[in-house]
């Protein structure tokens, strides 16, 4: 068996503490051995809580640690580019939180830095490592729901009362499209296996929340088929996905969050019958980490490479432009 890769975490973000670090702890091929914060006491406290051996008081110190193989970056969006490039220059493989960057151009620059350094760079869309998405794609390709007519999806939650939230900083890459709208966009591209032609998005920009898009809804055109989606940080929580065909419907009640056993299951309705499809319960964060580790060990391509992240950022750029300018943007 290959030795476990040693991970270092840049920052003590809630997604790291709540989901990614516990997921890596369950991994067969990885272990978290260091965490860094600009506040050493915060790093030490988090390290103690999550059983991480080493704490650093700066991101630079962690990158200088020769024992670290992989760096996970859950920093605010505007810091992704800087620290991904610095991690690549330090010879570390990288898992960076979504969205990878603030723009398509930034994502391309990050990908180039990783390629130049000979390291892997992966965007942390953990949901797509869950086996249900392969099962959904197989059903679509088999014609189980007939000819495809459209995809609907949403990802919303309500954090509007948390005035100090970094998601409300426009210059930091705040807003619902960056934070959660990226999921339906990514899922439609994954399931359809192609890139869109045009986007049209309407958004609620709130002056009380840094003028970021607190709610957005849009249409993303993939030729004859479209994704209709909405996303928000000022609405009740939900994250469904629905694939509509001429003969049936695939429904995923919790498409991007799987917090409890059985929540990875989904439904297919055909011929007047609705049937639950049972899928193996796995920790998608663990599988995400192990997929990266297998690629590193075997020197094989990532299933979702940096070009995928660049393409996703291109669509996000177009969505934000459409929402701001009230125009249909052709890609």
Automatic annotation (TrEMBL):
Residues 134-251 form the GFO/IDH/MocA-like oxidoreductase domain. The keyword Oxidoreductase applies. It comes from the Bacteria. Keywords: Oxidoreductase. Coiled coil: none annotated. The keyword Oxidoreductase applies. Residues 5-124 form the Gfo/Idh/MocA-like oxidoreductase N-terminal domain. Gene3D superfamilies: Dihydrodipicolinate Reductase, domain 2, NAD(P)-binding Rossmann-like Domain. InterPro entries: Gfo/Idh/MocA-like_OxRdtase_N, Gfo/Idh/MocA_domain, GFO_IDH_MocA-like_dom, NAD(P)-bd_dom_sf. Belongs to the Gfo/Idh/MocA family. This is Gfo/Idh/MocA family oxidoreductase. It comes from Paenibacillus dokdonensis.
């Amino acid at each position: 068996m290959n030795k476990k890769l040693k991970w270092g975490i840049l920052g003590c973000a809630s997604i790291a503490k709540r989901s990614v670090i516990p997921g890596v702890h369950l991994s067969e091929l990885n272990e978290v051995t260091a965490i860094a914060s600009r506040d050493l006491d915060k790093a030490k406290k988090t390290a103690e809580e999550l059983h991480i051996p080493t704490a650093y008081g700066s991101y630079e110190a962690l990158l200088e640690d020769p024992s670290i193989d992989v760096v996970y970056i859950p920093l605010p969006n505007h810091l992704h580019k800087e620290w991904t490039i610095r991690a690549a220059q330090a010879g570390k493989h990288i898992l960076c939180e979504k969205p990878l960057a603030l723009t398509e151009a930034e994502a391309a620059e990050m990908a180039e830095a990783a390629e130049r350094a000979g390291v892997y760079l992966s965007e942390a869309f953990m949901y797509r490592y869950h086996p249900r998405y392969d099962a959904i794609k197989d059903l679509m390709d088999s014609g189980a729901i007939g000819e495809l007519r459209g995809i609907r999806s949403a990802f919303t939650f309500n954090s509007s009362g948390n005035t100090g939230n970094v998601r409300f900083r426009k210059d930091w890459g705040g807003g619902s499209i960056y934070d959660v709208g990226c999921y339906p966009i990514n899922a439609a591209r994954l399931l359809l296996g192609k890139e869109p032609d045009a986007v049209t998005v309407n958004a609620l920009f709130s002056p009380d929340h840094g003028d970021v898009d607190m709610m957005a809804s849009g249409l993303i055109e993939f030729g004859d088929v479209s994704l209709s989606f909405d996303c928000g940080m000022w609405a009740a929580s939900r994250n469904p996905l629905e694939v509509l065909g001429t003969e049936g419907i695939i429904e995923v009640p919790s498409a991007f969050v799987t917090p409890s056993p059985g929540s990875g299951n989904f439904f297919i309705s055909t011929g007047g019958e609705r049937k639950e499809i049972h899928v193996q319960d796995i920790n998608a964060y663990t599988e995400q980490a192990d997929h990266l580790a297998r690629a590193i060990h075997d020197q094989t391509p990532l299933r979702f490479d940096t070009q995928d992240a660049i393409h996703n950022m291109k669509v996000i750029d177009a969505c934000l432009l459409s929402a701001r300018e009230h125009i249909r943007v052709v890609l």
